[in-house]
Amino acid sequence: MRTHTSRCFAIVPAAGSGSRMKSEHPKQYLPLLGEPLIRHTLGVLCASPVIDRVYVVLSVGDQEWDRHDWRPFGDRLVPLFCGGVSRAESVLNGLRAIAEHTAESDWILVHDAARPCLAPWHIETLVHELIHDEVGGILAVPVADTLKREDSTHRIADTVARDGLWQAQTPQMFRYVMLKRALESARHVTDEASAIEAMGLRPRLVRGDPTNLKVTYPLDLHLAEWILQHREGKE
Ligand SMILES: Nc1ccn([C@@H]2O[C@H](COP(=O)(O)OP(=O)(O)OP(=O)(O)O)[C@@H](O)[C@H]2O)c(=O)n1
Ligand SMILES: C[C@](O)(CO)[C@H](O)COP(=O)(O)O
Question: Which HAMAP family match (predicted)?
Answer without folding.
Answer: IspD
